[in-house]
Amino acid sequence: VKRTALGRFKHESIAIAETYTGQIAAYMGDDQRFDYCYKYLSDDPWKYAIDNGESPLDKGKLFVARFNDDGSGDWLELTIDNPILAAEFADQAELLINARIAADLLGATPMDRPEWTTIGQKGTVFWTLTNNSQRSTPDAANPEAPNNNGHIIRTKDAMDGLGDTFEWEIYILATSTLGTEGVFTDPDAAYADPFGRLFIGTDGGQPDGLQDQLTVFDTTQEVPEPKRLLVGVPSDEITGWAFTPDYRTAFTNSQHPGNGSPSSTNFPLPFDGVTIPRDATIVITRKDKGVVGS
Fold first, then answer.
1. Concatenated DSSP letters for 7-63?
2. Which of 130, 142, 262, 292 could serve as 113's disulfide partner, Cβ 3.0–4.6 Å?
3. Quick one: CA dihedral 261, 264, 268, 274, positive or negative?
4. N- to C-terminal Cα separation, the chain
5. Which residues pair with 30 in a beta bridge?
6. Under 8 Å CB-to-CB from 3, ≥6 apart: which residues?
7. Cα(27)–Cα(123) distance, rounded to whole angstroms?
8. Which of 226, 137, 222, 231 is closest to 178 using CA atoms?
9. How far apart are CA 170 and CA 242, in angstroms?
10. For the stretch 120-131, what's the b/e string if a residue is b when 16 or more beta carbons lie within 10 angstroms of its beta carbon?
11. What single-letter DSSP state applies at residue 230?
12. Is the pTM of this model over 0.90?
């Protein structure tokens, strides 16, 4: 099923929250240099839509983000009712399948490859900006030019996701970790758990001879401090993160290990230089009997 209402662009992920009205607010990144952060808000409460045989992802409003220099932000609605967009597109459908062009016309903020989104405590949304080696001019939301290492932004919508404004801050610049024990770059996969932890998988050449990795942050700390949980194999990408309900077993993935070259790795088998490496899901289980959330 094509979810046209979500807009046509390079969807990397989606994070969905329920508003106090029962509608869904969905946050999405467009995985391309100089493209945008989006939010979708369903017209109806999701339970009402499903009871009527509809999907809450099919009828709603699509917004694109403008990050202002003062830490405020605006969700700009991509609607044919806007004269600027009505002059360019024949109808709402044409507008939605050209969402990038519509966002250009409204003056949205071009970002450094928005990839994953995840919703943390108190409705905050984390956005991973993986990198942008082609950026020549920095701005408040993308402060490094070129941005070879990436960063993470944290936003908070007004009115529990229903408003058309938000607040934002740089959560961490990957360059700030260079030369430290917790060094990481190229944040990609993201998952925030209910206890304030933020898990980040990376996708890009890591410093200090490291492979791509899975790091975890305690977002209740004032100063973000990445802690390494897992290191991958040559030329893979660590992506995805999911828990069992008791939070004692987790799952992540090694994607395209060795970029398919057996001379680089034969993961998940021992190295023999011949066996073609395979994508794999990795299971991580706690050994101790620690309290859930610790």
1. -SS-B---EEEE-TTS-EEEEEEB-SEEE-EEEEEESS-HHHHHHTT--TTTSEEEE
2. 130
3. positive
4. 40
5. 11
6. 55, 57, 58
7. 12
8. 226
9. 25
10. beeebbbbbbbb
11. E
12. yes
Helices (H), the chain: 46-51, 83-86, 92-97, 99-106
Query: How would you classify the pairing of strands 60-67 and 37-42?
Result: antiparallel
Contact between 60 and 40 (Cβ < 8 Å): yes
What is the DSSP secondary structure assignment for residue 176, as one 8-state letter?
G
Distance in angstroms (rounded) separating the CA atoms of residues 233 and 265 = 7
Give the model confidence (pLDDT) of 143-165 as tens digits.
Answer: 999 999 999 999 999 998 899 99
Mind listing the pLDDT tens digit for each residue in 223-262?
999 999 999 999 999 999 999 999 999 999 999 999 999 9
Strands 249-255 and 280-285, how do they pair?
Answer: antiparallel
How many Cα atoms within 13 Å fall on the side-chain side of residue 260? 0
Cross-strand partners of 41: 25, 61
CA-to-CA distance for 6 and 42, rounded, in angstroms?
10
CA dist 202 and 63 (Å) reads 27
6: left (phi over 0), alpha (psi -120 to 50) or beta: alpha
Q: Which residue has the tokens 């360019």?
A: 88
Mark 8-38 as b/e (b = at least 16 C-beta within 10 Å): ebeebbbbbbbbeeebbbbbbbbbbbbbbbb
What band does 289 get if pLDDT is binned at 50, 70 and 90?
A: confident
Distances (CA, A) of 98 to 36, 156, 272: 13, 27, 48
**Which residue has 């220099």 as its token pair?**
69
Q: Is the peptide bond before 146 cis (omega within 30 degrees of 0)?
A: yes
